[in-house]
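New to this. Help decode both lines:
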Amino acid sequence: MAQPRTLTPPDDDLSPGERLPLGRRFRIVLVLGLLTALGPLTIDMYLPSLPTITDDMHSTAAAVQLTLTGTLVGLAFGQLLVGPLSDAIGRRVPLLTGIAVHVLASILCVFAPNLALLGTLRVLQGLGAAAAAVVAMAIVRDLFDGNSAARLFSRLMLVVGVAPILAPTIGGLVLTWTSWRGVFVVLTVAGAGIMTAAAVVLPETLPVSRRRNGGVLGTVRDYGRLFTDRVYVGLILVAGLAMAALFAYVSGSSYVFQDEYGMSEQQFALIFAGGAVGLIGATQANVRLLRRWTPQQIMAGSLVAGLGFGLAMLVLAATGIGGLVGILIPLWLVLTMVGLAMPNAPALALSRHGEAAGTAAALLGAVQFGVGALAAPLVGVLGVGAVAMAVVVFGGMLAATLVCFLVVQPHRLPVERLDHVVVVAH
């Protein structure tokens, strides 16, 4: 069998990714986008069917939301496992194996006879999608650094924004001609296609000379080293708490807009798409903003603004002022601010630990999805209404802002300016 190609760093100042021919670089970035999309597709495509699953399984909204929590738990713990593994044996094998697990779990979800088994299979789906998420981030760090990495994270966040638009819309369309089980048929096909594209296009980006073979003890040491970096820990908490605000919206929105406001599955998909527009616009605006401001300045400013919009959403939801519009406008503005914070916090965090990119990306992803897993059922526990969703969204933004200024202290992070381009000092 032919050995996979390995990209080795060049001997000049350009990163390995910047030295690639444009066409090849485009194909790699495109596949990285597909890998990034697998998690959001897995999470969001079945959102319009949550009320239907609740009725079909004769269960409660809070219990059905636990299937979403299961996916997030799988995404969190899967990254903790796959990240160090990819640092030890390379990127391709853990990536392709993980996506294969996702495809198998998706097939089994089609035939799940009860909620308990569906929840278990959703955990396996999350474990598989975790491989795609963490390896994609590690490959970005293998190939790019500094502002180049921040810009690429912004491009990948475009996928994170587009996927929530497409996923519920596809799910709503599937529900017009079949049951919620058909959603998992579509996920099976999507997973198989992404696995094929990754196998064909992605080279091995971690040379043998840079692999970390310390075994279990080495992994423990790597995680211990990460936890001693106060700024890194603060940055991944910021990313996780911002994700909590996003997943409070993801888990509660179908019940709020379909049950509380009487929207159809297709109308909900359109409302959900509207929120993703703000997320997309912000992530792409971030690329231009980076030409003038540092990543930490953008992150801090977006969190403060998001906190204000979250408070407005909570007040309007509690008082009923403005009705549906009074909730949607501040909610979409919060999502816009999350779209600015999310590319910069990971870029800043990973820039500090390029020597263990897979492990650092794994811990980052685990915190993001782990905190999101806590936020998702919390909306159900608080009552699955507009006020409950607003409380968790505001709480996530408040906690993220506090951690940013009290722990990360972005104004203290060193930067260098080279030809008017801001580069985070390592």
